[in-house]
Amino acid sequence: MKKLLTSLAVITAATASFAGVIVVEGKYQDKNLYVQNGYAGNGVGFCTYEVTINGKTTTDEVNSSAFEIDFAAYQIQPGTAVVVEIRHKDDCSPKVLNPEALKPKATFEVIDIAIDKNGLLSWSTKNEMGSIPYIVEQFRWNKWIPVGEVQGGGKMDKNNYTFQTTAHSGENKFRVKQVGFGGVAKKSVDVTFISTIGQPTYTISKDKSDIQFSGETLYEVYDAYGNVVKRGFGNDLNITTLSKGSYYLCYDNIMADFAKR
């Protein structure tokens, strides 16, 4: 019995010494992972003893103070979802030096982008290595502003998208962009179309409580310091909460100013 208990203790100790797992997930971005390994806590052998990619054990040489996880060696294509498991002894911990290598970046290439006379924006892309939202932007008031969002498909082959825009009078200009890991953005070329809708006008009510537009429009109100204090869409803008002073009103494709008294 004593011999049996001793054997069980050895097995338990051996199992416990191989208990740690570091998991790194993402999509292969055509870059390898680098691991700082080091020795086991007892000074015998190295910390990592096995690495798997999507459940399959790799042949990467882990018996060193640092090693590389080479995805290309396993015919993994860019954009493929991967789960990397680094199994190590529980008295030490290896460190993945560049886990961001599997984070999605804006890599799309536009195959085609167009907008029709009704303001329907459509675009096709390829080489997406991650599902990143497309931000639809419109150029108005001398700047690009976000007006919508469409989730990216994240496929390397063809992706197709549409978005119904809201036009202002005259020439309308739109583009799409993605913002990948680290805040790095990639933008498409812009497309334009001419809207035949009439240009709205505005009046301020007698009691100075609201601004009324002659038609529905996107609008922004800035204070004298350039801060946005109101933003919205419609034909009525409530200004009762604004303090007395001078303001700038942006609506349709027009910039004007008014005073709250």
Question: TL;DR of this structure?
Answer:
The protein is mainly beta and 261 residues long. The chain contains one helix and 20 strands.
Describe the 3D structure.
- The chain is mainly beta.
- It folds into three domains: about 1-100, no CATH class; about 110-195, Immunoglobulins (Immunoglobulin-like), CATH 2.60.40.10; about 200-260, Immunoglobulin-like, CATH 2.60.40.10.
- Helix content is about 5%, strand content about 50%.
- The protein contains one helix and 20 strands.
- It has one helix spanning about 1-15, and strands spanning about 20-25, 35, 50-55, 55, 65-70, 80-90, 95, 110-115, 120-125, 135-140, 145-150, 160-165, 170-180, 185, 190-195, 200-205, 210-220, 230-240, 245-250, 255-260.
- A hairpin with a 5-residue loop joins strand 13 and strand 14.
- The radius of gyration is 29 Å and the shape is elongated.
- It starts with a helix and ends with a strand.
- The model is unreliable at about 1-15 (pLDDT under 50).
